[in-house]
Amino acid sequence: MNEEIKAILKKQHYAIVGNHSGVKLCHWMRQSLLYNRVCYKQTFYGIETHRCLQMTTAINHCTQTCLFCWRYQGFTEKEIKEPDDPEFILEKSIKAHRKLITGFKGDKRCDLKKWKEANEPKHVACSLTGEPTIYPRLDEFFEICHKRGMTTFLVTNGTNPDVLEKLDTLPTQLYVSVTAPNKEVYKKLCRPLISNGWERLQKTIELLPSLDTRTVIRHTLVNGWNMKEEHIREFAKIDEKASPMFIEPKGFVLVGYSRKRLTIDNMPFHSQVRDFATKLADFLGYYFVDERPDSRVVLLSKEKEVKKLNR
C-alpha cells in the first residue's frame, strides 16, 4: 500500500491489517457502549452492535468512486496480487478492534459488561470501505468466521458476480448496493473504474435468487439523482429480478469525503425515504416491516416476520 495513503487512513483512525485489510470503529459502537443506543442492524436483524467487528478485506481497492461515498477514495488498485492469509486477517482484525475499544473502559459512561463482551466480537461486518470481493480468498475468510461461531455480513457493489458465484462459503447475509436505477445514472453517480460495471451489476442481480443465503438490496437514496417517480419504477424492476429477502432504502448522509462532491440538498429527509419505500413496497408486494428515522432507513421484507440473527 502506498505510504501516503496509509498515513491518511491511520490519521482517520483506521487500523491497517496486513497488506490490504483494515478495521475501524463505527459511530454506533461508541453509542452502544456509552449511551446504550444501537445500530439499525440490531433493530432490524438482531446483530448486537457492541459485538460487531467492522472491517474490510480491501481497504485500498475498489471498482467505483461513488459521489456519495464518505470514505477516502485514494484507490490505487483493482486487484490484490499477494493476498494475506484469511486466518491472519481475522486474528489481526480482532486484535486491532480490541485495541481501538481499550479507551472506553476508563469512561464512567461505559457499560463494563458490554465492553467485556465487545472484546469478543460475534459478528463480522465486511463492509468498511473498498470492495471486499476483490480479496480472492473471501470464502475461506467466511468459513473461518463461521467455524468460530461468528455471523458475517458482506456489502458489495455487485461488480464482481463471478466471485459471488464461486464462493464455497457464503456470508450469513449478503448486501448488494444498487444505487442507480439505470445505466446513465450509474455512470454519473457511481463513477465506475471499470468499463462494464453496470453489466456486471446486472449479472449479480440475476445471480442473487440462486444464492443460498439471506440477501439484501440496499438503495442509497440521493436527492436530485435517484428518487424520482420513474426511478422508483426502475428500481422495482431490478428488485423484482433480484428477489431479495430484504430491501433497505437508505438516505444518503452528507459526511466525510462526500462533502467534497455533494451538498446538503442531496440529503433526503426520513419522510422522503419513507415515502420512497412505501411506493416501492406497493410495486413489489413487500412488507414495510421496520424503520429507523435516526439512520434514515426503512426495512422492506418478503415476509411479515423477520428472523433475527442474534445468538
Please give a structural write-up.
This protein is α/β, with parallel strands linked by helices and 311 residues long. It has a single domain, classed as Aldolase class I (TIM Barrel). It has helices spanning 3-11, 27-35, 40-45, 86-101, 112-118, 138-147, 161-166, 183-189, 197-207, 229-242, 270-284, and strands at 15-17, 21-23, 52-56, 123-126, 151-156, 173-177, 214-221, 246-251, 287-292, 297-301. A ten-stranded mixed beta sheet has the order 1-2-3-4-5-6-7-8-10-9, sandwiched between helices.
Short description:
The protein has helices at residues 3-11, 27-35, 40-45, 86-101, 112-118, 138-147, 161-166, 183-189, 197-207, 229-242, 270-284; strands at residues 15-17, 21-23, 52-56, 123-126, 151-156, 173-177, 214-221, 246-251, 287-292, 297-301.
Instruction: Provide the CATH superfamily.
Output: Aldolase class I
Largest sheet: 10 strands, mixed
Shape estimate: globular
Instruction: Write down the domain tally.
Output: 1
Helix content: 25-40%
Identify the notable features of this structure and list them briefly.
TIM Barrel; alpha/beta; ten-stranded mixed beta sheet; 311 residues
List the SSEs and their pairings.
Blueprint: H1 3-11, E1 15-17, E2 21-23, H2 27-35, H3 40-45, E3 52-56, H4 86-101, H5 112-118, E4 123-126, H6 138-147, E5 151-156, H7 161-166, E6 173-177, H8 183-189, H9 197-207, E7 214-221, H10 229-242, E8 246-251, H11 270-284, E9 287-292, E10 297-301
Parallel strand pairs: 3-4, 4-5, 5-6, 6-7, 7-8
Antiparallel strand pairs: 1-2, 2-3, 8-10, 9-10
